[in-house]
Amino acid sequence: MEITDLISPNTVFADIKATSKKQALQELARRAAAATGCAEREVLDVLLERERLGTTGIGQGIAIPHGKLPKLDNVHGFFAKLDSGINFDAMDDLPVDLIFLLLAPETAGADHLKALARVSRTLRDKGRCEKLRGSEDADALYAVLTEEGAQSAA
Question: Is the pTM of this model over 0.90?
Fold first, then answer.
């Protein structure tokens, strides 16, 4: 599974403004609902339920919120760079400014795990994260996320 299987230029956002985890998830849920045809409330509820199980803030300013929805046919990814870091209850207590949201069908066991692994490997690259933080628009973010090296075998 490649990053390009998960995101497209229109699911990468450089204009998300949020001052809290809930606000960031609400805005991402709104945009994900528009892209997937799922109800915004349904998307937000699955994300909040997942956060109640434990934070998806994995550290180093990165969060990978994710959930499964019955109406989806395939895995969808959404990437957002926030204007400034927010408290995401991350494992290292650092503020989060890079968020990669994954939504999968309820039946997507292996595909969901492969997508999480691919995103995690991509965002573990410190150099790539520095480039993402230095990018100002969605097209530049998409280019950094999908550049050579992000596309190694899953």
Answer: yes
Domains and CATH numbers, the chain: 3-146 (3.40.930.10)
Say which amino acid occupies 79.
F
By the 8 A CB rule, do 7 and 75 touch?
no
Q: What size, in residues, is the chain? A: 154
pLDDT per position as a tens digit, 78-127: 999 999 999 999 999 999 999 999 999 998 878 888 999 999 999 999 99
The catalytic position among 31, 66, 76, 112 is: 66
112 is catalytic: no
Ordered alpha helix ranges (H), the chain: 21-36, 40-53, 109-123, 126-134, 138-146
- CA 6 – CA 8 distance, rounded (Å): 7
Cα(136)–Cα(40) distance, integer angstroms? 27
SS3 13: strand
